[in-house]
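Handoff note, outgoing to incoming analyst
You'll be picking up this chain. Sequence as last confirmed:
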Amino acid sequence: MRSSSIRPLRLLALISALSSFMLLAAAAHAATHTIRWNRSVLIDNANRGGGLVSIGCAPTVATSKALLCVAGDVRGEVFVSVHPARSAAFWHREVIDSPLAITGVSCPSITLCVAVDAHGQVMHTTAPLAGAGSWSHARRIDTATQAGGGFAGIAAIACPTTTLCVAVDNAPNGQILVTTDPTGPASAWTLTPLGSGVMLDSVSCASATFCMVGGTDGYYTTDPTGGASAWKPVTSLSSGGSVIASLACTTVKLCVGVGYGNSGAGLATGSSSPGTTTWTDSVIGSDPPDPGAGVIDSIACPERNFCVAADSASNVYTSTTPVRGLWSVARPLKPRSQATVSQIACNATICVEVDNRGTVTYGIVKTGSVTTTATTTG
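Most recent structure output, in case you need it:
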C-alpha cells in the first residue's frame, strides 16, 4: 500500500471502473489480537508543503528489538525511526528525491529499504539510519507515461526478501516491475505489461513464491520472475469493475484486499484462494459511510488472521475473521482529521499509520480476547 496530490490523481484514472472492492482470504480462525493505539504525532507539516503518503516497516527479528519504519512524503523526503512510538524528535528527516513524491516504501529487513517515486524511479539504502547519504541516487526503471502526458509513476512496491522486489506502475497497460537485485542498477529490473486497460495500484507478496497485484483487475503468481505468462487473472474481480487500493498477503491462501466503489466506500468480495471463482461480499464500515469516514485506502495484517484497514480520513477497522467479512466499526485515530490519504504498515509487534497531513500514529499489537462489532456479509 500514499498527500492529496498523489492517490486522488490515480483514483481519477480509475473512477469510471468503481463499483466494489475486493477481499480475498483463506478460511479464518478465531484470533485473540487487538491493537492499542497511541496518540498521533506531527512529523511532516502539510501546511508547509509536506504530507506522508507511504510507509514501510521491517519485520521484527527475534534477536533484535529494533522497530524500523520508513515513511515517504510528497516532496521526496523520507522519515526514518527505530522508535516510532516516541516523539517527532525520533523520526529523522532525509531528503532523497526532491521534489518528487515517494509513492511506496518496502523494508524486507532492518538493513535494506527500497523506495519508489511518482516518476518511475527507485532508490535504496542498506543503512537506513545513516542519513540521506546512505540512499542511492534515484534510478529510472519505468518510462511509462500517462494518457495526458508525464510519467505514469510507480504506485506501490513489495519486497518479501532482500533478493526480490515487485512493484506496479500507473500505466494504462498495467506494468509489473520485478528485480532479484534491489541494490543493483536500473537494468536489474524487468517490466511486464499485463494488457491494455489494466490499471494497477497495489502489490503484496506473502513470500518469494507468491505475489498478488491489484487495481481495476487482480492478478497473482507463484513465480514472480516468470514473466507475463506467470501472472494469472482473477477474472471474478475484474468483471465487477473493482478497484483494489491495497493488498496484504500473509500466506498463499490468505490475501486481503481493500478498496471502494460507486455503491459504497467499503464494499468487498472474498475467496479462500486467488484463482477461485466463488466469492462472497462483505462491507467495511457503514454504507453509506458515517460522517467523517473516507474511502478505504490501505490494509495490513500483523498476524495471519488479524487484519487492520485504514480509510482516507484516518479511521481504522479490524477483523479477526477476514474470510467471513466481519469488520469492526470505525475507530478514529485522529478525531476531526482533515486527511484525505492514509497508509498503514504492520509487523507482528506494531502497526504504524501515516496520513497526508503529516501525522503518524503508532499502535501496539496486543494478545488477548477480542470483541468485534461487525457488519454482516452482503
